[in-house]
Each structure stands twice: as C-alpha cells, then as structure tokens.
Design goal:
103 residues, two-stranded antiparallel ribbon, elongated
Length: 103
Amino acid sequence: MSVVNNAAALDPVTPQLSGSDSPFASLRSVRTDARARLLAGYIRSAIAFLSGPDHDKLTACTAPRCVRYFVKVHGRQEFCQPSCGNRARAARFYHRQRADSGR
C-alpha cells in the first residue's frame, strides 16, 4: 500500500479556478516530469475509484483466458466486452460437441 501512496504523492497538485468567466476548477501540477505526472494522476484516479461508491461493482471477466476487470453495470453482466461473451459461448459449444461425439 505504501508503494501506491508514494506513487500518488510523486506529483503534488493544487486546485485552482480556471478563470473569471468559468467557475471550473482544475488541478495545477508543480512537476515538469511528464512520466511522474502521468503515473501520479493514474494512481490518484485508481485510489478515487477504489474508495468510491462503485468499488463493489468491480468484477473479473469470466471468459476463458481473459484477465480484465470491469465495472458491472447490469446484474447479469459477466463479460468485459461482447467479444469475450462470444468466446465463452464458442468454448461451451465446442466442449458440448466433443462430449456428444464421445471423444
């Protein structure tokens, strides 16, 4: 966990208002190293997601040979993308055909 926290702290940021005509705030970086800024931003986003309300919807894809995780948006969703669902259905069909032919 300390590795993640240290990576998030690589680029300290300061929230600032964008301007007088727009009320939007942005994060201003103090580092010029693009790699450190990217890594820190990525880690901060992961921390925000894992500590947010949708963290319990994070699910592993059940397709064969798929190692992806996805946010489950529907109760019956099992796959990260349609191609994984197609691959799983094709594998089930293949195994059924082999079992029926006695191999």
